[in-house]
Design goal:
By secondary structure, the protein is an alpha/beta fold. It has helices at residues 2-30, 54-57, 64-76, 94-103, 144-164, and strands spanning 37-42, 45-51, 85-90, 107-112, 137-140.
Amino acid sequence: MNDELQQLETDALDAFWMQRALELARQAEAAGEVPVGALLVRDEQAIGEGWNQPIGSHDPSAHAEMCALRDAAQRLGNYRLSGTTLYVTLEPCVMCAGAIIHARVKRVVFGARDPKTGAAGSVFDILNSDQHNHRVEICGGVMAEECGALLRRFFKQKRDAGRQE
């Protein structure tokens, strides 16, 4: 019974933080960026947040996860982010997975799977490769429908706008 209660608490916390990640994704969307949001949590406190901004920042590495990791590292004054959980609305790509490993993030919770570039098991399994000396716990599919719907709507609007031009 204790394990069940603990899992319910974890599920509730994951949904709570994913809701915040969705708010960050909407900031990206409002800026004309692909709507992906991320935040880093330690001890039930948000210590870093970010959203996609490669277009506006002219920086191909400015994915939501990278921005959240940078924000947390700056706030803490340390690039090692041990004991943290990264919440992100879309499964991380290979670039972001590499940074997550180097930062020593403990756990990644993501919403929608990325069937083209996902590096948490969908296409690649970078986060759990036995070639690394650090393993990352992965929990995928948290609020997947809402996270995926935001992305699908964004890309549909882009396609529709392209057809009208």
